[in-house]
């Protein structure tokens, strides 16, 4: 008999045959707990022994109709959804506690209700009075959203069946309690089966369901990753503590491009969409300082400017620090190695700190050259020209490679008042009026061009 996998990680949902302190899959500590089995069908009969019903089969050619969509009217939200909310779909909105998920969804609920959808908002965390208080603060108390404070999933499904809403918001999935599952709310089995029930209910009844999932650090409550595979769309709401910006990021979308982001600002009156994120991400930039470089990235379908900051200081430690926020630490190590071995710019004995300003997270290799520029600028204590934007990929040989959507990036830079672009040499270099181009073939040439002969 196969060994039963009844230990489950509450952070990523991976199952194991035995308990261990660290999850092999996601490397989180203390997240593995023993789980009880999911609710099951008739006991004791194998699937082969008891007949199910035949399912209708189709061919590959017959076209399903495009699913109907409803727009919220909030551009930043609609774009992340891949162009509006899809009927009969399941969404997960994950994020840290307090980041603004309930605020976002109450505002979205009001928008969708105004655009003709029947919307029910179910809070398992807050009383009706608390949600109503938030609605008043956001100026939404008159919007036709129906509200209930409930955690019993059976009662919720019965209500949804009777009311037939177009959209149900469940805040949060960790507070739901399915009475047929023998474990506490928030446990992996409860969260999984609640999400499963809600998702299949939504598909059967042509309803859209949005589930809120708190990102948890503590193993006693299951995180949203446990249900990611069940839903059509996974959005994460992110932001830095102490910053007003919030980024809604699609990490999975069956109905649109993943990696699309929407940018919002948290204000006393709720979330306000940021139509020009580049301006926002650059707004805190002061006078040109050593270690500061402006990079133009592509987020989803949009170019977006942001500031990359580096600080380099003599290290008191035998093992110097390498600290990165908003970028990949492996990639930083690679760039430090290329700078050292191909350009003669060593970082031995130096602590290196790298930060992407504004809480943005960059994953493109296109940022390589901007990172290298920030590092050398910090090390040499020499500021870069204030009106220059830099991007390009660096290979291990020290060669520079052009990146995708160069023209879009250049246009965005020009639009925001930049006058110079330093980018890799490319056969057919796009030209943008008003933007002076400086090219480099390799990293050593770039360092010499920008910081002088070494
Ligand atoms: N009275 C208020 N004025 C301004 N901002 C507030 C107020 N109350 C709450 N907020 C903001 O809303 C955030 C909480 O948002 P909420 O939607 O409840 O988060 P979540 O549902 O993700 O836990 C707070 O961190 C704060 O930034
Ligand atoms: Mg909340
Ligand atoms: Zn895990």
Keyphrases for this structure?
alpha/beta; nine-stranded mixed beta sheet; Ribosomal Protein S5, domain 2; binds adenosine-5'-diphosphate; 10 helices; 3 domains; Rossmann fold; 454 residues; binds zinc ion; binds magnesium ion; globular; four-stranded mixed beta sheet
Question: How would you describe this protein?
Answer:
The chain is α/β, with parallel strands linked by helices and 454 residues long. The protein folds into three domains: 1-35; 71-274, Rossmann fold, CATH 3.40.50; 280-451, Ribosomal Protein S5, domain 2 (2-Layer Sandwich). It has ten helices and 23 strands. A nine-stranded mixed beta sheet has the order 8-7-9-10-6-11-12-13-14. Strands 15-16-18-17 form a four-stranded mixed beta sheet. It has a three-stranded antiparallel beta sheet with strand order 2-1-3, with no helix packed on it. α7 packs across α8 (368-380). The chain starts with 6 loop residues before the first strand and ends with a helix. The protein has helices at 75-80, 101-114, 128-137, 153-163, 188-205, 277-282, 329-343, 368-380, 406-415, 443-451, and strands spanning 7-9, 15-16, 32-34, 69-70, 85-86, 90-95, 119-123, 146-149, 167-171, 208-214, 233-238, 245-253, 261-267, 270-273, 292-299, 302-314, 322-325, 350-356, 388-390, 393-394, 400-401, 420-424, 436-440. Helix content is 25%, strand content 25%.
């Amino acid at each position: 008999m196969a060994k039963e996998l009844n230990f489950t990680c509450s952070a990523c949902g991976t199952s194991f045959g035995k308990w261990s302190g660290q999850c092999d899959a996601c490397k989180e500590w203390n997240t593995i707990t023993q789980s009880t089995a999911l609710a099951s069908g008739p006991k004791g009969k194998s699937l082969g022994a008891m007949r199910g019903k035949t399912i209708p089969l189709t061919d590959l050619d017959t076209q399903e109709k495009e699913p109907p969509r409803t727009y919220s009217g909030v551009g930043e939200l609609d774009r992340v959804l891949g162009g509006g909310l899809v009927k009969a779909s399941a969404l997960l909105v994950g994020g840290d506690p307090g980041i603004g998920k309930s605020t976002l969804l109450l505002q979205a609920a009001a928008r969708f209700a105004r655009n003709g959808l029947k919307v029910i908002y179910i809070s398992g965390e807050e009383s009706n009075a608390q949600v109503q208080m938030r609605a008043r603060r956001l100026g939404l108390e008159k919007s036709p959203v129906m509200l209930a404070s409930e955690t019993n999933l059976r009662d919720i499904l019965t209500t949804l069946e009777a009311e037939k809403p177009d959209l149900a918001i469940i805040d949060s999935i960790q507070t739901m309690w399915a009475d047929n599952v023998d474990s506490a709310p928030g446990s992996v089995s409860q969260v999984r089966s609640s999400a499963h029930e809600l998702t299949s209910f939504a598909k059967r009844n042509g309803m859209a369901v949005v589930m809120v999932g708190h990102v948890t650090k503590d193993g006693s409550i299951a995180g949203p990753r446990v249900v990611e595979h069940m839903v059509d769309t996974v959005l994460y709401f992110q932001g830095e503590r102490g910053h007003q910006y919030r980024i809604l990021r699609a990490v999975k979308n069956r109905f649109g491009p993943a990696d699309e982001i929407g940018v919002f600002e948290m204000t006393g009156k709720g979330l306000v969409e940021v139509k020009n994120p580049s301006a926002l991400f650059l707004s805190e930039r002061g006078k040109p300082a050593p270690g500061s470089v402006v990079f133009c990235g592509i987020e989803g379908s949009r170019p977006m400017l942001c500031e990359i900051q580096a600080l380099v200081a003599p290290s008191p430690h035998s093992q110097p620090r390498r600290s990165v926020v908003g970028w990949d630490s492996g990639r930083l190590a690679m760039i430090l190695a290329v700078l050292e071995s191909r350009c003669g710019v060593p970082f031995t004995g130096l602590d290196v700190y790298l930060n992407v300003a504004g809480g943005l997270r960059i994953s493109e290799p296109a940022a390589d050259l901007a990172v290298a520029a920030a590092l050398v600028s910090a090390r040499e204590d020499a500021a870069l020209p204030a009106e220059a934007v830099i991007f390009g990929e660096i290979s291990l040989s020290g060669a520079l490679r052009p990146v995708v959507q160069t023209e879009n990036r250049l246009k965005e830079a020009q639009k925001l008042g930049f006058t110079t672009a330093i980018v890799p040499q490319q056969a057919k270099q796009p030209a943008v009026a008003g933007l002076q181009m400086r090219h480099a073939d390799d990293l050593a040439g770039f360092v010499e061009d920008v910081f002088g002969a070494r």
